[in-house]
Amino acid sequence: EARRKKDMTQEALAAGADYSTVSISLFENGHRQPTISAVISLEHALGLETGELVRQTTSRLKLLKKISESA
Predict the structure, then answer these.
(1) C-alpha span between 71 and 69 (Å, rounded)
(2) Ramachandran sector of residue 57 (left: φ over 0; alpha: ψ -120 to 50; beta: rest)
(3) Is the pTM of this model over 0.70?
(4) How many Å apart are CA 48 and CA 9, to the nearest integer?
(5) Per-residue exposure over 22-36, b if at least 16 CB sit within 10 Å of its own CB, e if not
(6) Over the stretch 19-62, which tens digit does the pLDDT of each residue have?
């Protein structure tokens, strides 16, 4: 979501964070969990403050939990 908000392709994020596009896809689709150092690299490539991706992900998970509980 953060990548899309920045109108950035997976290729551009991968290059900026020094990861492969396959890794970026796996992270985004939840098939692989990034390490702390990967998260920091992704945040830098996205121009985000340290910890921002974790905050955004936590907020999104809380929202999804509320939606599923009310269904």
Answers:
(1) 6
(2) alpha
(3) yes
(4) 16
(5) ebbeebeeeeeebee
(6) 999 999 999 998 999 999 999 999 999 999 989 888 888 888 88
Q: What is the rounded distance in angstroms from the CA atom of residue 61 to the CA atom of residue 69?
A: 12
What is each CA distance from 12 to 9, 16, 46, 58, 70, in whole angstroms? 5, 6, 10, 24, 38
**Three-state SS across the chain?**
CHHHHCCCCHHHHHHHHCCCHHHHHHHHCCCCCCCHHHHHHHHHHHCCCCCHHHHHHHHHHHHHHHHHHHC
